[in-house]
Amino acid sequence: MRGFLTAVRFLTVLPAGKDGGAVRAAAWFPLVGALLGLYAEAVLRLSALSLPTSLAGALAVLFLVLITGGLHEDGLADVADACRAWRSPERIHDILKDSRIGAHGAAAIGLSLLIRAQAMAALLTAPRSWIPAALALSRGAPVLLGAMSKPAGAGLGRQFCQALDRPTAAAAAVQCIVAASLCGPWPAAVLLVVLALALLAARVYFHRRLGGVTGDCLGAFSQIVEGASLVVLACLRST
Fold first, then answer.
1. Residue 236 needs a FRET pair 20 to 30 A away by CA distance; which of 66, 123, 159, 185 works?
2. Cβ neighbours for 109, distance < 8 A, ≥ 6 positions apart
3. Can you give the residue range of the structural domain that contains 46?
4. How far apart are CA 211 and CA 83, in angstroms?
């Protein structure tokens, strides 16, 4: 229970538990993601009772941004600003340390919000397990990427990757599989294949560009997996 509450504290703005560090709580990240998905779906369905579907989707995403404090959006913006063009790893790391958001970072956040809002709206009539599954995979994805990647740079990302062990990564992987399986055999298979391909692609990309992963890389990857999972489920729902 202590690890779960620490995960809630780390991934959200809620004052749950004590600040025990991300690694101790990493095994619970997918479960916290699933709970975030449940609440986001509740916001989506309640909003749709009196608002257009597109606005309901936007409010669901707004809820996620507020409850998480924009934790992963910040990483997405930093990576988008730093990794454009053909910059050297040294230059990329320098930009990642800069707290300012540039044009590419702002565009990345805007596109992420738009895509997730539209996908949420498309999932209004989907089974109730689909949105929680997408959020569970997105919160488990950084744990899996951190466990299979070399740390780069200094800071929380390095500490997180170095301290991750196999039981923690295995626990996160099992939760991701269980969450996906609740969507049914076919959606689960598609979601897990997308997650596996995204993990391999992200590892290759970040290792080539930065020599490993940083905390910003893990946050950006969470956003990418969340958006991709929601889009995949929205496409499956429409077919």
1. 66
2. 73, 76, 77, 101
3. 2-238
4. 12
